[in-house]
């Protein structure tokens, strides 16, 4: 009786095509990563979240120490996991960098003036300076992270983080190592998110340039008031964040939401999700709308 299943030759042909399980490769993931590699000027891999991308980088590099500033609280959570697993030591980038040795990691967020120290590997979180604004590889970065959830995705509807490897480090096997380890770490992004990412990168340059214009002096912001004194402005309302907590809900065009980098303008009272942040801080993400100046 003839078998309805694939023959050995059929299985070998499918393996040759490269797409068997989507946690390894899939057409949309492969296409998305190919486009990103061209844009970022280095081979790129996608991950399901920022946590998993930093975890993957630390698994690959396995440093004894990592120097970092405050930055994204999620990075510190991942570092705490590695402290428990490997004894990773966290250093303050400003005060303890002299303890770094060859093979350790410096993790920075731009905009900043990054540099390698004492042979340490430089990992740059480029979320706030997406292409075409900056290329950290020109300044010596070994690995660059981009939040696909933010500017690359641009619509606040997908989870994704990108790791791009300096081409020189790729020659040393870094990209191959990340690709292999992603399979076993199980942190590949889904097919739907990959398709949405392909959709998004088509408009990346147009969106970023428009957002930069809206946020710059030639767009929405004409001048900045350094200080305003008036009897109606009570300092105690500002000190404990009472006023700033309520301000986002009073705006018409800005939505009070936690994302950034999308086509819609958002504002967020940061202490809502990160208790370590100053209660007087509001984060504003400028979108591509032309009506922002009309918001009361």
UniProtKB/TrEMBL annotation:
Pfam families: Cys_Met_Meta_PP. It comes from the Eukaryota. This is Pyridoxal phosphate-dependent transferase. GO terms for molecular function: carbon-sulfur lyase activity; pyridoxal phosphate binding; transferase activity. GO terms for cellular component: cytoplasm. The keyword Mitochondrion does not apply. Belongs to the trans-sulfuration enzymes family. The keyword rRNA-binding does not apply. Its cofactor is pyridoxal 5'-phosphate. Keywords: Pyridoxal phosphate, Transferase. The lineage of its organism: Eukaryota, Fungi, Dikarya, Ascomycota, Pezizomycotina. One of its GO terms (biological process) is transsulfuration.
